[in-house]
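[job 0417] fold request received: FecR family protein
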Amino acid sequence: MKKYNNYLLEDFVLDSAFQKWVRFNGREDEKFWTSFKASYPMQTDDVDRAYALLDSLYRRYTTAISDEEIDSEINKLVLRIRREKNADETPAQEKGRNRSISPLFKKLAVAAMVVCAVGIGYHYTRPHVQRNTSYQLFTKGKSLKVYTNTLDKKQMYILDDGSSVVLEPGATLNLPVNFPEASREVFLTGTAAFNVQKDAERPFTVYSDKLVTQVLGTRFIVRAPSNGQAVVEVREGKVSVFKSSDFSKPEKEKMGLILTSNQKIVLNKLEDRLLKELSDTPEIIVTPPPTVTFNYVNAPVSQVLLELMAAYHVDIIFDEELLKDCPLTATLSDQTLLEKLSIVCEAIEAKYELIDGQIMIYAKGCS
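[job 0417] inference complete; emitting structure tokens
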């Protein structure tokens, strides 16, 4: 603890242990620095200022740059303060400089604190996401709060309306301090899974850099990386998805796509259009009745496909009349949906294709 008793503001900012405390707020670190301030009250001001400076920096850059780039930003700030401080000193002052803080350095520290205060306020009202048109439209006239997952594991948050959201590491959710009576709107950067409480009077809307997702009540995932492919994937229910650039247009309803269970939409950046696809790993949505075990002995293929449709809530398009007399003996209880379809198609010498979030079965009947 004694090694810190001669530290100045810039020393705390550059200290790795101090940075760790500010960034992760560990219980032991909190205990150490609280004890340090009690033991060295003359250092309290510099500790608090350094904390605010780093806290603002980490908040603003949580999802935007890497750890190495954050370190670079910290070093640039400290070097600039030192350079400007040294420029204000005479040669004699520079030669006899001790560890006391010069008047200019104090002014710079105060200025840094003003920047920090603005940064912290900016995090609360306009957090660390790109200030694009979609974000500007979302924030206009709103007081916001922010949920940011700074951990290396998923983090769940319960919203005021009872909906829940699970943020992936590095994701940030911006939302009004209180949802208004007519709507529920949030802005996402990163990846999150939503479980939305049904409310027919207040649709739930997720804005992101590239996509807008609107629902009444459902389970879905939004992937909205600052750099990367934008995806919306529905686990259960139904959502409307729009490009952010189209959402404010009067004719937006003609430009969006409807997603249902086990479908996803991908924004094709090259063609700038929405593509509907089947989810990579479709899940069983409705638990089948006890009579449906997915274990078949000479069962009509048409029956098998209808039961898969009901369980996964996906559209499987096939000729029911053509396949009703094709028998299937197979155990399909442990495979993924696509593996089940492969077994069925191999048994009747058919093939399947994924088109626009649906499954097309091409078969010639059975011999």
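[job 0417] notes: Residues 261 and 313 are 6 Å apart (CA to CA). The mean pLDDT is 79.
[job 0417] exit 0
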